[in-house]
Amino acid sequence: MTQSTQIFDTDLHRFQHDVLEASRKQPILVDFWAEWCGPCKVLDPVMQRVLPEYAGRVRLAKLEVDEDDNMKLAGHYRVRGFPTVLLFIDAVEVARFTSAQPAQVIRDFLDQHLPS
Q1: Which of 32, 64, 81, 101 is 20 to 30 A from 70, alpha carbon to alpha carbon?
Q2: How far apart are CA 3 and CA 18, in angstroms?
Q3: pLDDT per residue over 31-68, tens digit each?
Q4: Does residue 17 have a pLDDT over 60?
């Protein structure tokens, strides 16, 4: 996956800093995904196209659930299927969507939940 300042990898050990603390300054999406997950592979390029349209208003943390202890985070946030994308603002989950979604659905989701 292409990494940028808007899209980055995180894990259980960096989650507090990368997501919760960072979301106090800027909304953070967290994509819970797995390498074996077909819909995850469909969602990734869509997210990479949509995120730049928001010009830094939101960042995306990619969390691969099969690495290290990352499944503990999936359990903590009651993620039941992959991909699941959670939106954090001020260290609180404010919204989520599941499965691969088309670009317009993701735009509508962000427009509805991001601060203006």
Answers
A1: 101
A2: 14
A3: 999 999 999 999 999 999 999 999 889 999 999 999 88
A4: yes
Residue 2 is predicted with a pLDDT of: 41
Active-site residue, selected from the candidate residues 7, 40, 74, 87: 40
Query: φ and ψ at 19, to 5 degrees?
Result: -115, -65
**Cα angle value 87/114/94 (rounded, 5°):** 35
- The DSSP symbol for 19 reads I
Q: What is the dihedral of CA 17, 36, 4, 47, to 10 degrees?
A: -100
Please indicate whether residue 19 is annotated as part of the active site: no
Q: What is the mean pLDDT of residues 70-89?
A: 96
Q: Which of 75, 17, 69 is nearest to 84 (CA)?
A: 75
Q: Which of 37, 43, 87, 110 is catalytic?
A: 37
Measure CA 113 to chain center.
14
- 87 in active site: no
pTM: 0.94
Whether the predicted pLDDT of 86 surpasses 60: yes
Amino acid residing at 84? T
